[in-house]
Amino acid sequence: MQLCYNGKFMAGDKPLLTVDNRSFRYGDGCFETMKVYQGQLLLADLHFERLIASLHLLHFHIPAHFTKDYFTGLIRELCRLNSVSELARVRLTVWRAGTGLYDPVDHTPHFIIQCWELPEHIFELNSAGLLLDVFPDVVKSCDKISSVKSNNCLPYVLAALYAKQHQVNETVLLNQHGRVADTTIANIFIVRNSHVYTPPLTEGGVCGVMRKYLLQKEFPFRISEQPLSVKDLQTADEIFLTNAIFGIRWVGRFRNSSYGNATAAILHEMLFESML
């Protein structure tokens, strides 16, 4: 497989990074996970809006050529070289160049783009509801970098390990106030009385592009932001999760509560039609 390193295409099995790399040492950077379908990068505007916002927030010096057109061109070419243009998962990882300790000496961004083929069923709504629980060991802070898809993913790594150990599909991460932030790899929504709610970003969740897309689009359901408690999850009519790869996945059980998927199924169909 080929990858793209700072705009150059090369074999993916070649060593590229040194032990002084700031992403390796400190998690100093951010990333985007994206989906390509029939050669087109889905939700490209939202992905690169978030990327540039994250780079500004992390005090990178952003080159003038770091544009949506620049990166989408590289992504399309990489998918073509790897013969995965029909349906692919793409990861764009950005880190701060140079060395230094916590105080950087160079704020130039370097990047790698990778891609992998996705199965066609990725567009289908999950037939069985996900099993969900709370990850109790780590809380997310509610600060200005909590919404960034940081290269330091330890809370989510540990949450994923907890999910595997406890035989559930996803776990909910709470913030320091004991309220819902997000889940292992997704943003979370609940349905109550035909109204859809998701926590605002001030609750510590990642700024998901699918979440933002749903909040911006017109749907037959009212979708709004509201802080959510664990009790809100337990008493909801439905729970569903969103991210850029899976779109929408519905939750079948959270602790002792079980749920249907009527709203999630309608939104899934409308989402599929509006994006493709």
Task: Furnish the topology, listing elements before pairings.
Layout: E1 2-5, E2 8-11, H1 22-26, E3 29-37, E4 40-41, H2 44-57, H3 68-81, E5 87-96, E6 109-117, E7 130-140, H4 154-165, E8 170-175, E9 180-183, E10 187-192, E11 195-198, H5 209-216, E12 222-225, H6 230-234, E13 238-243, E14 247-254, E15 257-258, H7 262-275
Give a description of the structure.
26% of the residues lie in helices and 32% in strands. It contains seven helices and 15 strands. The protein has helices spanning 22-26, 44-57, 68-81, 154-165, 209-216, 230-234, 262-275; strands at residues 2-5, 8-11, 29-37, 40-41, 87-96, 109-117, 130-140, 170-175, 180-183, 187-192, 195-198, 222-225, 238-243, 247-254, 257-258. The strands form two sheets. Strands 7, 8, 9, 10, 11, 12, 13, 14 and 15 form a nine-stranded mixed beta sheet that branches. A six-stranded antiparallel beta sheet has the order 2-1-6-5-3-4. The mean pLDDT is 96.
From N to C, what is the helix and strand string? EEHEEHHEEEHEEEEHEHEEEH
Largest sheet: number of strands, sense, barrel closure: 9 strands, mixed
- How widely separated are the two ends? 27 Å
Strand content: 25-35%
Helical fraction equals 25-40%
Q: Low-confidence spans: pLDDT under 50, at least 5 residues?
A: none
The Cα radius of gyration reads: 19 Å
**How much is the average pLDDT?**
96
- How large is the count of helical segments? 7
Number of strands: 15
Structural class determined from secondary elements: alpha+beta
* Morphology call: globular
